[in-house]
Amino acid sequence: MSTSQSESDQSVFEGNGSSRQVSSGVSGVGRKKFACVECRQQKSKCDAHERAPKPCTKCAKKGVPCILKKDFRRTYKRARNEAIEKRFKELTRTLTNLSSEEILKRIEQEQQALLNGQNFTKEKVKHLKRTTPSESSAVYAVSPLIIEGSGNDDVGFTENNGAEGVECSDVLTEEQLKCSPKSLGDIHMSSRDIAELFQEFVTKYHPFLPVVDISKGAERIYTLSPCLFWVILLIGLRRRFGATDLMIRLSNLVKSILAEITISPIIRYTPSEADEPVLNVASVYSVQAFLLYTFWPPLTSSLSADTSWNTIGTAMFQAIRVGLNCAEFSKEYVTANSELINEQVRTWVCCNVVSQIIASSFGFPAYVSFDHTVVNAARENRDNYKHHRIPTTIKQMAQIAHFEYQVISTMNSNPANELGMVASEQKQPLLQVLNQQSSQLEVNLKDSKMDSIRKFLLLVAKVHLLTYYFTDSLSSLKKEFTDVRLMSLSEIESNFETKRGLVRVYNAAIDLLNHSTSMWQRDPTIIKYFPGVFVLNIWQSACIISKLAHSSLSAVLDIDRGKKAYQDAVSLTFNASVLKHDMAYRSSAIMRSIWSMFANMHADWQKGKESQEEKVANDFNLGISIKSRMSVSVFFDCLYILREKCGMAKVRREAVNDEDYDEDDDEDEPLPRSEEPTGAPTRTSSRDRRLSTVKHPEESARKIIKTIPLDPNPINASRGSPGSSLTSPSSQQTEVLSLNEVLTNRSPQDRPDSNVCLGPDTSTSHTHVPSLFTLPQHPRETPTDNLDNKPFNNQESDILQQSPPFLMEHWDNWESDSVWKDVDILMNEFAFNPTV
């Protein structure tokens, strides 16, 4: 054997990170015996200590270096193989759009990470097993270096487990944002516009409903579903300054696409990137588009025009049509289609979540199917569901939605009752059981570190549960039956439990509004991206506070705390408005009227109570007349009372032949001093007016909202020839777009005179926030701004000039015609019987 061979065969010893070569003359006596790296990995007997300095027998036979490393730990090959397999699947998806140099660089990084045995030690694998099996972030967490070198390919499901605040915004890479220019009808989007809108969606909207795998990137999402692609862009345009006109035009086109998918879809059970992008394809991705469209529906001016209830029903039926409800039980090609199965299961869970949220907030029965897939996917630490990549946030939302489903199905499960309500003797025990479940759910979610969005939904569910105490109140009975001296012992006890429940719902509503305000304070822009149903939840909670703060329980309630929360709710809903006269904008004004109305009613009740000879504490304003809307019946009852009171005031004014002021002539004309009620503020002092101090609202309130500009335009049935077009009552042709017209319409690129860029225009997306129950004189961006000292900038001044000065000024007068008409519009044809 040559000298060079002898030197090459000498074994290398490594200890404490330092390496040294052992000469052939060193004796093995007294040396600590331990196996080489290869033998320790294979758990085989090693004779390196006997053959030193030569390599051990096994290493010499295999022709591999015989290395002794003191701190070596065995590598789990199975874990490494699984990681390699999953990374291979990811690379096949992400490397298709890369150049050859980028591919080689990416492969080199992956190889270094996968071949590093330190990433697969026993401790690391055990630690990963203790984490949530189905947590999406753990899929590639077998090797931390893999995630670090992968460009955050799993960014679509990156989560923040911090209980404070909303999860951190995801940031897509340049490769994921890269997309060729796209056109839809007469709308053209450049690559830069698409990247900006996608990033806007990912950072601002995606945390509320993480149903889309955004790690696919814009181009792949378009290939899989152009419908989902354009819905994402439409949502991203909601808060884009200067893009209001573009958003409205794109909304009409997207509406046409969704209509085609609903009526005449092309079904694709297993969509792939090899398929041609088609607009009217129904698949798992089109269901995701409907879910996003439900959470952020097109802007309307009334509740009756809101499309959320319709679109979530379409999403559920379409999900069943494409087989999402049975995706979990697919046994064929499970490994090959694991990614698609994960997509389908996640989407099916979100369908039930969104459907229950919408149903509970609107008071309708829910399109839900809490089957085996949904219930088990919502559970934590389930070994049988490791292959489902469902984010923790969706699991938490599923648990909350399932609890709301239990509340509705429990409290409205009596077919013998015309309203479906359980019997009165069963109501109190059932509410106590559901309260215990609510407390347990809250504990479980806190242990799983829910974020502020999921906490918002939990507080909403708690309010919905406790509002059932309104349906059990005795205040709706006659006076002789509410006299405690004439009640039986069981009735007194039941009345006490009901009032205790009303105190709890008052505090729960305050907690919800305070939590919303704290979210706003941490991130002043988050309220602008709230889903429409979230804004509705804020409005409903504010109605509960206003009703109970002016009831016979006001003496035992913290009125100041409730008033502060109510004031914040007015600012929150106003700041959530996207366009003037949308639902959030109008609700902030109606809330002012509701507070003033209940304050006047409460003052009249107190005067009548003082004039009574018998000093008996009768209940006031604790019951509801409308009980057909389940957990939100109290909200519609408040609107019904407002409409009723405003209608009575209108009749009184007509009876005394009040002068009918013309709106244009009286715009700036002050009320004569002789007609002003005592204590009523004048126009000059209106800046200091607050709802809590308005006892006798002015009788000369102007009409604030004449039309409902954001609601759908009616389409008259054509009376002309069969080929005549559809026209609206105003003789203007209404756009009734078909998908064929969308596809054949010319792109703006082909028309040099067209300009659809995302630059500023005169359309507004106002960001003004009214002062708390005072007239909005200054814009407000954050809750901590100084309203009296903050000057207008040019942009804000222009926006304010487009708003009439009386927009919110006269909403204090709840007896005005404008309030009555606006509430009547809200409740018109809203599918409930106000007489029950």
From TrEMBL:
Residues 657-669 have a biased composition (Acidic residues). Keywords: DNA-binding, Metal-binding, Nucleus, Transcription, Transcription regulation, Zinc. Residues 1-13 have a biased composition (Polar residues). Residues 15-26, 718-734 have a biased composition (Low complexity). It is found in: Nucleus. Residues 1-28, 656-734, 773-797 are annotated as: Disordered. Pfam families: Zn_clus. Residues 685-702 have a biased composition (Basic and acidic residues). GO terms for molecular function: DNA-binding transcription activator activity; DNA-binding transcription factor activity, RNA polymerase II-specific; transcription cis-regulatory region binding; zinc ion binding. The keyword ATP-binding does not apply. InterPro entries: prtT, Zn2-C6_fun-type_DNA-bd_sf, Zn2Cys6_DnaBD. One of its GO terms (cellular component) is nucleus. SMART domains: GAL4. Residues 35-68 form the Zn(2)-C6 fungal-type domain. The keyword Zinc applies. Its main location: nucleus. This is Zn(2)-C6 fungal-type domain-containing protein.
